[in-house]
Amino acid sequence: MPTTTVLIVGAGPVGLVAAIELTRRDIPIRVVDRSEQRTKLSKAVGINSQSLELLEPSGLTERLLASGIRIQRANIWFDGARMLTLDLALARHRFNFILALAQSETERILEEALSERGVTVDRQASLTGFEDHGDRVTAGLRAADGTESEANARRLLGADGSHSRVRQVLDIPFKGARYDETWSLADITLDWPHGYGEINLFLSAGGPMLFTVPIGPDRIRAISQTDDVLGMLPSGTRVETVHWQSTFHVALRQAERYQRGNAYLAGDAAHVHSPAGGRGMNLGIWDACSFAERCAAGTLDGYSAERHPIGARILAITDRMFRIASLPPGPGQLLRNALMRTAARLPVIQRQIAPQLLGIER
Ligand SMILES: Cc1cc2nc3c(=O)[nH]c(=O)nc-3n(C[C@H](O)[C@H](O)[C@H](O)COP(=O)(O)OP(=O)(O)OC[C@H]3O[C@@H](n4cnc5c(N)ncnc54)[C@H](O)[C@@H]3O)c2cc1C
Questions:
Q1: pTM flag (> 0.90)
Q2: Which CATH superfamily includes the segment(s) 6-45+103-173+256-325?
Q3: Residue 238 CB neighbours (<10 A)
Q4: How far is it, in rounded angstroms, from Cα 236 to Cα 211?
Q5: 287 in ligand 1 pocket by Cβ < 6 Å?
Q6: Each residue's pLDDT tens digit, 94-147
Q7: Atom 33 (ligand 1): residue with closest C-alpha?
Q8: Ligand 1 near 68 CB (within 6 A)
Q9: Per-domain residue ranges of the chain
């Protein structure tokens, strides 16, 4: 029998969390990643309450809290006027805030914690394919210099992102579609009246939306459903520094199943969706924790049946949030705005909405 119980393909946030959660249960693992180094990009910037709760037993939450910014207020604006300030502290949860932290920092904290447990990521090791023999999986790996090698493991976890090689080898369809718009994002230091402590969603009668999240004491992440996020900033804003800028497309897709034989999928390999609600990385962290718990309990057969419906529900929530935020002028938009203004006056409604934004599921 192979000495590695689980071969984890991909050392993004999901693969790293799976590695830590398995290691702390004394399950032998190996982690491979094709890249030379971990990401330097800020990518996912919001860690939600549920992730903080899930990562507490491994001691990761304490480390993440020490590095991130706690955000408790979210404002929704319409044509320059504030419709609603949502007080996330109204949620009855000890982590009643969004923890803002660049993904590059999250991955640094995860990889350091893993290495303290004696596991180093095998970098520049790319999965080319694998074969499931029933009692073990044999994976083909290619090093940066082209050298080919084999690795044996009892099980294989594909945490290898949206273009997952594991999913391709398993021939599992990744059903869904791409939204039409080109989106853009920028991490910026700016001079504006909204400060660096709150989330803002700027909506307008006919135009696209702009979403901002603080990611440092003097830095915000701005995301817009256009290819020119800087052009979407409210008038009077003075941009001082653009630290990173990019455009991207958003898709809503889910793997038809998360398991075949001894191979499993987690994170973006299993699902991708819009940034609305900031659920992407958090849903993957949840997959990883569930995989590790089931692996230790010997209940992995139920992994796909548990995770697929949860993924489908969260994809539907993010799609609904995106569509509500993008409503064109008309009765739907008027009704949405009226409901927001009502919620602004009634903390009892805010108490219902806050847990959803915080990803509180249990
Ligand atoms: C520009 C951008 C902005 C984003 N903004 C947000 C946001 O604001 N909020 C949010 O929630 N999410 C956001 N996301 C999405 C978020 O980054 C992902 O949901 C998250 O990274 C998923 O983690 P993962 O570990 O599943 O996959 P990934 O982070 O993609 O990691 C996959 C890893 O697998 C490795 N790999 C791939 N193929 C192989 C192979 N064949 N062999 C070995 N290794 C392999 C890769 O090198 C990579 O390290 C953003 C993404 C991008 C690109």
A1: yes
A2: FAD/NAD(P)-binding domain (3.50.50.60)
A3: 8
A4: 17
A5: no
A6: 999 999 999 999 999 999 999 999 999 999 999 999 999 999 999 999 999 999
A7: 10
A8: no
A9: 6-45+103-173+256-325
